[in-house]
Amino acid sequence: MLKHRLIPCVLLKDWQLVKSIQFGSFRTIGHPTATVRVYNARNVDELIVLDIDASLNNEPINTEIITDMANECFMPLTIGGGIKTIEDVYTVLGAGADKVSINSEAIKRPSFIKEIATIFGSQCVVCSIDIKKVDGKYRVFTKKEGLLDIDPLELAKEYEAQGAGEILLTSVDREGTTLGYDTELLKLFTHTVHIPIIINGGMGTPEHGLEALQNGADALAAAYIFHFTQFTPLMIKEALSKHRYPFRFI
Amino acid sequence: MSANIVIIDYGMGNLRSVQKAFEKVGFTATITRDHALIKEASHIVLPGVGAFGDAMKNLDSLGLSDLLHVEILEHKKPFLGICLGMQLIAEKSYEFGEHQGLGWIENAKVVRFEESSLKIPHVGWNEMNFHTPSVLFNGIPDHSNFYFVHSYYFEAPSTYAIGYCDYGKSFVCAIQKENIFATQFHPEKSQTHGLQIIKNFANLTKESLC
Fold this sequence. Notes:
Chain A has one domain: Aldolase class I (TIM Barrel, Alpha-Beta Barrel). Chain A has eleven helices and twelve strands. Chain A has helices at residues 32-41, 52-57, 63-70, 86-94, 104-108, 111-120, 152-162, 183-190, 206-214, 224-228, 233-241; strands at residues 5-13, 16-21, 24-30, 47-51, 77-80, 99-102, 125-134, 137-142, 146-147, 166-171, 197-200, 219-222. An eight-stranded parallel barrel of chain A has the order 1-4-5-6-7-10-11-12, surrounded by six helices. In chain A, helix 9 (206-214) links the parallel strand 11 and strand 12 (219-222). In chain A, helix 9 crosses helix 11 (233-241). The relative contact order of chain A is 0.15. The model of chain A has no long low-confidence stretch (mean pLDDT 94). Chain B has a single domain (5-209), classed as Class I glutamine amidotransferase (GATase) domain (Rossmann fold), CATH 3.40.50.880. Chain B contains seven helices and 14 strands. Chain B has helices at residues 15-24, 35-40, 52-61, 64-74, 84-87, 191-203, 206-209; strands at 5-8, 29-32, 43-46, 79-82, 92-93, 99-100, 109-112, 122-127, 129-130, 145-150, 152-155, 161-167, 169-177, 180-183. In chain B, the strands form three sheets. Chain B has an eight-stranded mixed sheet with strand order 2-1-3-4-14-13-12-9. Chain B has a four-stranded mixed sheet with strand order 6-5-7-11, with helices on one face. Chain B has a two-stranded antiparallel ribbon with strand order 8-10. In chain B, strand 12 (161-167) and strand 13 form a beta hairpin. Chain B is globular, with a radius of gyration of 16 Å. Chains A and B meet through helix 6 of A and helix 1, strand 8, strand 10 and helix 6 of B.
């Protein structure tokens, strides 16, 4: 049986891995390679690293650090941040990543998804969508441009049609809060698209993971819970398996 | 004699991931498309992600299809196909049209998952159920989890199947035909058990397989 996945999703900033709260106030998690080594030893199912120096400050993609992390990572590694061209995809995969996560460029140019999928396959393209709720309505948000007047569900449908392999769905409002995933948002997405959805933002307890699985999440992404609570990846997986959601135990 | 492993570089996929998996288990592997190096190799690995048609086109235009036929089918060097590298040894694929494969496994074809309730691609960790014992599985328990990511699967008679996986249906996820090994999953991304498969392959000798 296909297992659900538990995926640390962390940010790369100033050569450190960090965790943000509602896309601001960064807390340092640790040195990238040391942290990846720990994740690998703890048998998390995948790893997502988003380079915010590249995405926010237009710095070149940090291939040196991606290479170092990839060398420690014997599980799937997704890298995002500042990926705008097919050359960028070659660069990131060449450094050892298995998938790329794209965000701003896909909003501007959804055909970029198809370009990547044609060359590298759909499985290589994770489309990241950041969402904020304003006056009861969900809106697409980017760190650089703020709130956009785009309906997230329409965007998700377009991404699926262009050949996206997975969607990384982040609630900006919940991110780093430990208040639980936005299951209302999740439900809208799982009813709209048929590709796997990685829900992100808000997991503070295993129960939050359970709520997301009950609402159709394929994979659970998180960061805060692994670093600033008592819960380990194993404890979370064990708790969720008790509810008959299959996870991998080596 | 230590293994001289080459990873075929034909412009498709995560070659570096495969290379570092060999390094992790104590072997070196060279990424190359150079015919001379491939002829000297003791072990040949064909990884790959991407589209079947493009992959065959690249193998043909680099002269690698013919070379691999000689090295694998005649010289019987241990071969490991990974993911797309497994699919390429089928006779045919139906991914975006119909394409001829390398044709090393009779009556094997690559077809798309059709069940409408399934999410495609099949992505994540899933169990491999042993079908026939194989040296590739030394030290690995039955029903271990491996990392899969694919939208098409390998449909073949059970003759050479060594492992099956369930996703809507039971499909062949690992095969062995003499010196030819292949997995639909990514051993290089499957942590401990995956690295064990890489190690088992590197430890094979041509003599032990004939």
